[in-house]
């Protein structure tokens, strides 16, 4: 074989090796991209901003209890803001999470965090939610099927019928029933759960929720409009006060002797 033939043969071998290396790199890059896309939340999903929706977290108003848990993976880990911690059940299905609120609450959003990429067979696949005033009258209000979920999951409560607009869940107790796991897993992992209600302490002189331009579309699941009845009541009180001045004209000159007792100066008794 001549020197030219040897050079040509080595060149062809180098080209084939280069193609194989490029193919492997491309396959690894594609696989990595697919894995990252599965492990991240849908970028098209709207960002949940409680303050922008006029909501506040009310986990501090509740006592959380679970049907079972492994040591070191209980309620404290469930309520931690560290999503690397989680509640792990340690008993027979269904696994229960029961939330007792200190008073009757008007819930506008319920969210819980699960991660199939990390937990696999520990990830819930079928969850049912119930609520009521006590354990004797719990009623199912939502059913959440899950397929390889990653991230915060929203519980549908927009049609529960509570609140001024019918989009709130009004109750004392909420109970979460985990009936089935992926891959027929026995125990489950929940990495966080949060309850939200309307913020009753906005800036003074403003209605609940952020300021919005007239005609702006708002998600009805979270919005709340100041009822017209409250405005009518304010007008009625003002009219009653004006009528009182008309009935007692002497008060207009500064003499309030004819005014009714309920409008006089307070007396310390």
Considering the chains and any ligands shown, give keywords for the structure.
ubl conjugation pathway, Galactose-bd-like_sf, mitosis, alpha+beta, elongated, single chain, cell division, two-stranded antiparallel sheet, 4 helices, 8-stranded antiparallel beta sheet, Jelly Rolls, 269 residues
What does this structure look like?
This protein is an alpha+beta fold and 269 residues long. It has a domain of 144 residues: Jelly Rolls (Sandwich). It is built from four helices and ten strands. Strands 1, 2, 4, 5, 6, 7, 8 and 10 form an eight-stranded antiparallel β-sheet that branches.
Topology:
Blueprint (H helix, E strand, L loop, with lengths): L2 H37 L15 E3 L4 E5 L8 H4 L8 E2 L6 E21 H4 L4 E9 L6 E7 L4 E5 L14 E13 L7 E2 L1 E7 L29 H20 L22
Antiparallel strand pairs: 1-10, 2-4, 3-9, 4-7, 4-8, 4-10, 5-6, 5-8
GO cellular component, one term: anaphase-promoting complex
Keywords: Cell cycle, Cell division, Mitosis, Ubl conjugation pathway
Family: Belongs to the APC10 family.
Helix content: 10-25%
The fraction of residues in strands falls at 25-35%
| Alpha carbon gyration radius | 31 Å
Highest-level CATH class of the domain at 55-198:
Mainly Beta
Number of helical elements? 4
| Major sheet summary line | 8 strands, antiparallel
Order of helices and strands: HEEHEEHEEEEEEH
For CATH, the homologous superfamily of the domain at 55-198 is named as Galactose-binding domain-like
Task: Please state the overall shape, judged from the principal axes of the Cα atoms.
Answer: elongated
Query: What average pLDDT do the residues reach?
Result: 77
Give the termini separation: 123 Å
Q: Which regions contain 5 or more consecutive residues with pLDDT less than 50?
A: 32-40, 203-228, 250-254
Can you tell me the CATH topology of the domain at 55-198? Jelly Rolls
Structural class: alpha+beta
Quaternary state reads single chain
What is the CATH architecture term of the domain at 55-198?
Sandwich
Count of DSSP strands: 10
